[in-house]
């Protein structure tokens, strides 16, 4: 990643997590990292997709099983492209989420606050980061999740 314009700041532990939605594939290994880059948001996302492709990722179906999935979760306290668009994607019903993908980058990730497999690794490296829309810290979002959402996530 350094060769592609990123500087690594922190890396979480690695966590074994069940695939989401349930039954959609084998368990995953999830982690979070904090990086710095002088790239623009769209360039960051394009670079992440390029790395995925180099590791064999094909984007044929939404939420399909994949060997590598690199997500841009947040950039500081930015909401992109705007609050209305973010809110639309945040409130999209699950059936629509499975069919639709945004054409533009949505930040922060619209469902990061709902996913233990994101929040648990994120808590390793940024427990006090606050969601720019809800104002909740990573630890507060994690505490708000049902225990069942967190129970199957185990450190490696």
UniProtKB/TrEMBL annotation:
Top-level EC class as recorded in UniProt: transferase
Family matches, as Pfam families: HPPK
Pathway assigned to this chain's UniProt record: Cofactor biosynthesis; tetrahydrofolate biosynthesis; 2-amino-4-hydroxy-6-hydroxymethyl-7,8-dihydropteridine diphosphate from 7,8-dihydroneopterin triphosphate: step 4/4
Enzyme Commission number(s) from the entry: 2.7.6.3
Domain 7,8-dihydro-6-hydroxymethylpterin-pyrophosphokinase, first and last residues per copy: 62-73
Similarity-based family: Belongs to the HPPK family.
Protein name listed in UniProt: 2-amino-4-hydroxy-6-hydroxymethyldihydropteridine pyrophosphokinase
Native species: Thioclava pacifica DSM 10166
Lineage per the UniProt record: Bacteria, Pseudomonadati, Pseudomonadota, Alphaproteobacteria, Rhodobacterales
């Amino acid at each position: 990643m350094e060769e592609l314009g990123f500087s690594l700041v922190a890396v979480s532990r690695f966590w074994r997590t069940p695939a989401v939605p349930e039954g959609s594939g084998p368990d995953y290994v999830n982690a979070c990292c904090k990086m710095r880059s002088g790239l623009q948001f769209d360039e960051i996302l394009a670079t992440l997709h390029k790395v995925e492709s180099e590791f064999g990722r094909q984007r044929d179906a939404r939420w399909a099983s994949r060997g590598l999935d690199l997500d841009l979760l947040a950039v500081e306290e930015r909401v992109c492209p705007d609050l209305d668009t973010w809110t639309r994607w945040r409130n999209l019903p699950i059936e629509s989420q499975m069919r639709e993908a945004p054409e533009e980058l949505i930040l922060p990730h619209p469902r990061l606050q709902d996913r233990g497999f994101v929040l648990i690794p994120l808590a390793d490296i940024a427990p006090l980061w606050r969601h720019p829309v809800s104002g909740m810290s990573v630890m507060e979002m994690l505490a708000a999740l049902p225990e069942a959402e967190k129970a199957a996530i185990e450190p490696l």
